[in-house]
Write a structure and sequence with these properties.
about 50% helix, five-stranded parallel beta sheet, 13 helices, alpha/beta
Length: about 270
């Protein structure tokens, strides 16, 4: 099952405040129980990661494990150095240094859109009043996704088509959810990439063009019950959209040891 986040294209727009990742996580758990599932797993990337990890922290007995593709793994000492503008620790491995460089680049060049939606989501009139403004905002708010989309429009095979990209923009436009979807940034109070101390089994897929490619060393520290870790050769922040075949293969590999006749996947 693939539920739609409150305020997004296939869901209603919240009429009250309080729809943060914790409340949505609680709603998804209630939803699965009402549908009659006695066991399930959950998957998330982007906001889905934040919500899925909150589901894991709530740890209902029905939730067997989670899978994430935007893992929250940054160690405190790395976070402190990033936030203070200090150089990286001297003992970083090659994978850790690559993740560090990605995070430095994101903080300098990729974070401003999230800050705007966090501070003043209702003022983004341009993306609600103009299809071109909405398209520009969606296409260019993540530089690595923008480069991938540019390659698609140049005729390269990337797992996406032009129609996929235009359909996504059109969904926001026809449902008028550009502003209501931005409100989740305003509601959220959690640091995306800080480890959340999850105690249930976790599977992680690392796509190279994610905001940062979580190193295995950080991932093992963040998730004590890590049941699957894999670094993919291609794919980025919106992996389920960009590389659906690779994404599905990762989910199957991650949850295969847990499969039973009454288990199902809750995918976002």
């Amino acid at each position: 099952m693939i539920p739609s986040l409150p305020g997004y294209g296939f869901s209603g727009k919240p009429t009250t405040t309080g729809w943060d990742p914790v409340r949505i996580a609680r709603a998804w758990i209630v939803l699965m129980k009402r549908l009659g599932y006695t066991h399930f797993v959950a998957q998330g990337g982007d906001w889905g990661d934040a919500i899925t990890e909150q589901m894991a922290l709530l740890a209902p007995p029905e939730l067997l494990a989670i899978h994430v593709n935007m893992a929250a793994t940054i160690p405190p000492e790395i976070n402190a150095a990033l936030n203070s503008g200090n150089p990286p620790p001297a003992n970083l491995s090659a994978d850790e240094k690559y993740a560090w460089d990605q995070l430095v680049d994101f903080n300098k060049h990729g974070l401003s859109y999230a800050l705007e939606m966090n501070q003043r989501p209702q003022t983004l009139y341009g993306i609600a009043d103009s299809p071109a403004g909405l398209a520009g905002w969606i296409l260019d708010h993540d530089i690595r996704s923008y480069k991938l989309i540019a390659r698609v429009f140049d005729g390269h095979q990337e797992g996406l088509t032009r129609d996929d990209i235009l359909d996504n923009i059109t969904l926001y436009w026809l449902t008028g959810t550009a502003i209501s979807s931005a409100r989740l940034y305003w509601e959220n109070t959690f640091a995306f990439f800080d480890p959340k101390h999850i105690s249930i089994p976790v599977a992680v897929s690392v796509f190279p063009d994610e905001i940062y490619a979580a190193p295995k060393s950080w991932t093992e520290r963040a998730y004590p019950k890590l049941i699957h870790f894999n670094r993919l050769d291609k794919g980025g922040h919106f992996a389920a959209w960009e590389q659906p075949e690779l994404f599905v293969s990762e989910l199957r590999a991650s949850f295969k040891p847990l499969r039973t006749d009454n288990a199902t996947a809750l995918n976002r």
